[in-house]
C-alpha cells in the first residue's frame, strides 16, 4: 500500500475522489458510538441515500469473536463496532463527497460520517484511511504511486526513496504538507526553504546534529505545534514570538535519533537563555523545555495566560520561577530535577493542580 504522508486536501482531495471512484466498485462510510451527529453529517447521509446498496452492522460481540478466532478483518474500516454504509460508485456520489469535505481526514464524527473508504470489485480495500489516526493509503503499485504523486501537488505519498533527505525535501516543497516530521536523516541544518511551507501547522524536528533553527521557520505564521529534539541547541531566537498561533512548544536537548556512545552532559548544553519574546505567545497551551542549561526564566512568561501544561524538568533552574503563581490556568506543572531541587534517581514526576 502507498501511504499518505499528509491528508490530501483541496484540489488533491477532489482529484483523489474521482480517481478512487473510477477504480472502485463501492465506497463505505461508518457510524460508530453514541455520537450525536451534527446537521452536516445527517445531510450527507441523506444526500447519499439514493446510492445506498447495503447497511452492515458489526457488534462488539462480533469484534470479540474475531479476536478470539484470530480472524483477520476483511476491510480496514471494520476495526470496531458500528454501522457501515456501502454505496455504489458514480459521478453523482462523487459530487456529494467533494462538496461535503475539503480534506480526506475530515471524515470524522460528529461533523461527518467516519472514515471514507473505497473497495474494489473483490470487496478489498482500494483506498483505506482512519481519519482520527491521520493514516491511510492506496492499494496501488510503486510505479503508479510515484507517477500520481509527481503529478498532483498535495497528494503526498511516502516512498522508499524518502530515506534520502534530498529526495524527501524535494517532495516536501512540491506537496507543501501541513504536518511535517524531520527525523533521523543525520542532517546538520534545516533548509531555509522551509519558509515556503506557508500552511504548515505541525513541525517535529528530531535531528541530533541540528544546532540552530533557520530564520525562515519563524515566518511560518500558521504553525500551531513545534517540537525540537536535538543534542545541543544553541539558542531560541527572539523571533519565536512571531509564531502567534503556536499552541504547543517542546524543546529538548540531549536527544539522539539513533544509538550513540556519547550523551552530552547537561552542563555542556549551549542553550542557557529563554528570550522574553516567548511571552508574546498568548495562545500557547503546552510548554516543555527539558535538559538545557537554562538557569532562569524571563518574567514575561507570566503573560502566557492560556498555558495549562508546563514541564521545565531537567534544566539548571536556580529557583522556582516567580511567575508560576501568575499562570492561573495551569493544571499540570513539572519543575523537578533542577539545580534547586535535584532528583538523584532521575525520576521526574509532575503535579496536577486541583
Proportion of beta-strand residues: 15-25%
CATH class of the largest domain: Alpha Beta
Query: What order do the SSEs take from the amino end to the carboxyl end, as H and E?
Result: EHEHEHEHEEEHHEEEEEEEE
- Our count of helices gives 6
Report what the structure shows.
This protein has 354 residues and is of the alpha/beta class. The chain folds into two domains: 2-150, no CATH class; 178-352, Ribonuclease Inhibitor (Leucine-rich repeat, LRR (right-handed beta-alpha superhelix), Alpha-Beta Horseshoe), CATH 3.80.10. The chain is built from six helices and 15 strands. It has helices at residues 11-23, 39-48, 60-68, 91-100, 142-151, 165-175; strands at residues 2-3, 26-31, 52-58, 82-88, 114-119, 125-130, 135-138, 179-183, 202-206, 225-229, 248-252, 286-290, 309-311, 332-334, 351-352. The chain has an eight-stranded mixed beta sheet, with no helix packed on it. The protein is elongated and about 70 Å long. The two termini are 47 Å apart. The relative contact order is 0.09. The model has no long low-confidence stretch (mean pLDDT 93).
In short:
With 354 residues, the protein is an alpha/beta fold. The chain is built from 6 helices and 15 strands.
Keywords:
6 helices; eight-stranded mixed sheet; 354 residues; Leucine-rich repeat, LRR (right-handed beta-alpha superhelix); alpha/beta; elongated; 2 domains
Amino acid at each position: 500500500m502507498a501511504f499518505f504522508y499528509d491528508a490530501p486536501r483541496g484540489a488533491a482531495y477532489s482529484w483523489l475522489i474521482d480517481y478512487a471512484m473510477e477504480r472502485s466498485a463501492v465506497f463505505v462510510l461508518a457510524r460508530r458510538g453514541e455520537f450525536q451527529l451534527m446537521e452536516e453529517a445527517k445531510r450527507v447521509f441523506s444526500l447519499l441515500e439514493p446510492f445506498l446498496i447495503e447497511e452492515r452492522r458489526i457488534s462488539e460481540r462480533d469484534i470479540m469473536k474475531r479476536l478470539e478466532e484470530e480472524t483477520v478483518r476483511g476491510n480496514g474500516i471494520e476495526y470496531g463496532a458500528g454501522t457501515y454504509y456501502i454505496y455504489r460508485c458514480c459521478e453523482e456520489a462523487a459530487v456529494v463527497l467533494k462538496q461535503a469535505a475539503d480534506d480526506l481526514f475530515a471524515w470524522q464524527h460528529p461533523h461527518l460520517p467516519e472514515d471514507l473508504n473505497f473497495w474494489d470489485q473483490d470487496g478489498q480495500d482500494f483506498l483505506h484511511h482512519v481519519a482520527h489516526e491521520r493514516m491511510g493509503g492506496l492499494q496501488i503499485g510503486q510505479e503508479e504511486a510515484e507517477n500520481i504523486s509527481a503529478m498532483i501537488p498535495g497528494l503526498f505519498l511516502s516512498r522508499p526513496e524518502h530515506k534520502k533527505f534530498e529526495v524527501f525535501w524535494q517532495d516536501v516543497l512540491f506537496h507543501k504538507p501541513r504536518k511535517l516530521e524531520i527525523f533521523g536523516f543525520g542532517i546538520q541544518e534545516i533548509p531555509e526553504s522551509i519558509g515556503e511551507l506557508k500552511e504548515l501547522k505541525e513541525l517535529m524536528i528530531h535531528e541530533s546534529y541540528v544546532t540552530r533553527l533557520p530564520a525562515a521557520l519563524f515566518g511560518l505564521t500558521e504553525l500551531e505545534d513545534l517540537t525540537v529534539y536535538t543534542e545541543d541547541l544553541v539558542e531560541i531566537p527572539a523571533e519565536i514570538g512571531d509564531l502567534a498561533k503556536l499552541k504547543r512548544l517542546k524543546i529538548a536537548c540531549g536527544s539522539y535519533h539513533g544509538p550513540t556512545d556519547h550523551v552530552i552532559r547537561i552542563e555542556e548544553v549551549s542553550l542557557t537563555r529563554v528570550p522574553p519574546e516567548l511571552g508574546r505567545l498568548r495562545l500557547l497551551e503546552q510548554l516543555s523545555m527539558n535538559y538545557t542549561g537554562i538557569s532562569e526564566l524571563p518574567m514575561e512568561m507570566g503573560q502566557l495566560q492560556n498555558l495549562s501544561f508546563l514541564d521545565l524538568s531537567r534544566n539548571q533552574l536556580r529557583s522556582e520561577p516567580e511567575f508560576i503563581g501568575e499562570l492561573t490556568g495551569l493544571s499540570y506543572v513539572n519543575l523537578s530535577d533542577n539545580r534547586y531541587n535535584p532528583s538523584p534517581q532521575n525520576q521526574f514526576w509532575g503535579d496536577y493542580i486541583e
